[in-house]
Amino acid sequence: MGRTNITRPTEFILLGLSSRPEDQKPLFVMFLPIYLITMIGNLLIILTIRSDTRLQTPMYFFLSVLSFVDICYVTVIIPKMLANFLSKTKTISYGECLTQMYFFIAFGNTDSYLLAAMAIDRYVAICNPLHYITIMNHRRCVLLLVLSFCIPHLHSLLHILLTNQLVFCASNVIHHFFCDDQPVLKLSCSSHFVKEITVMTEGLAIIMTPFSCIIISYLRIFITVLKIPSAAGKYKAFSTCGSHLTVVTLFYGSISYVYFKPQSNYTVKDRIATVVYTILTPMLNPFIYSLRNKDMKQGLMKLMHRVKGQ
């Protein structure tokens, strides 16, 4: 088929994780429980934190918001993916594709900023415990929350506006399971110069800001913990950061593998790696935070007993 320029295609075709017909139903059976577990797990985290007065602290406040964002994040991607597993056409309209891309970028970056806010909270709690209540007051928590939502959504809006200016070719097949930025960009015939410059400047700044906050916070935490004389004290300080560090490693590790490489090298392995931070990390977050956290485990037990009592 000739590559006739199309300013705005009416629809795209999502190839998904596999194009083989015999793989579609097994993939549906695998990802449906993952979606349900993610929804239930993150809802339990939110309900537990809301119902237990001992968990009304900045750390758990940000954790509850992170769980809410994770629910939104997977809902942007998985339902459409599940529908395509059972569909022969696997199409997504142009408008729906840009909408999915917008919320994927926005919620993904919101996750990153919330992880940074949680790292700052741990830094203050460990390095400046006497002034923790004063520094991490309600006003500052709300400010961090507003920044965590506003900056990613403005960043995402800019990317969508630039994508909407591109001219697309006759091929409308996206080699991915959702409308990610790089696979969609591959279908464009027009110059990517403006978008590439934006990604290398504004995009890099937006991504590196929360990551830098996390690195600096944990370097300061590490230096402070090393000064604690007792081994028990060191363990107690590090134990409050264990869950957060695990989630940060999963999230940034998979993102780095996928996006910090040339666009032309975007392969099937990258699609699989994308599953880790788009689907598996939101599912694992509730388990990581509840199983490694004594207060969360006690809160969950209280919630279960309250539900049974009713």
From TrEMBL:
GO terms for molecular function: G protein-coupled receptor activity; olfactory receptor activity. The keyword Repeat does not apply. It is a multi-pass membrane protein. Pfam families: 7tm_4. It is found in: Cell membrane; Membrane. Keywords: Cell membrane, G-protein coupled receptor, Membrane, Olfaction, Receptor, Sensory transduction, Transducer, Transmembrane, Transmembrane helix. It comes from the Eukaryota. The chain crosses the membrane at residues 27-47, 59-81, 101-120, 141-162, 204-226, 238-260, 272-291. Residues 41-289 form the G-protein coupled receptors family 1 profile domain. GO terms for cellular component: plasma membrane. Belongs to the G-protein coupled receptor 1 family. Putative odorant or sperm cell receptor. This is Olfactory receptor. It comes from Bison bison bison (North American plains bison). The gene is LOC104991568.
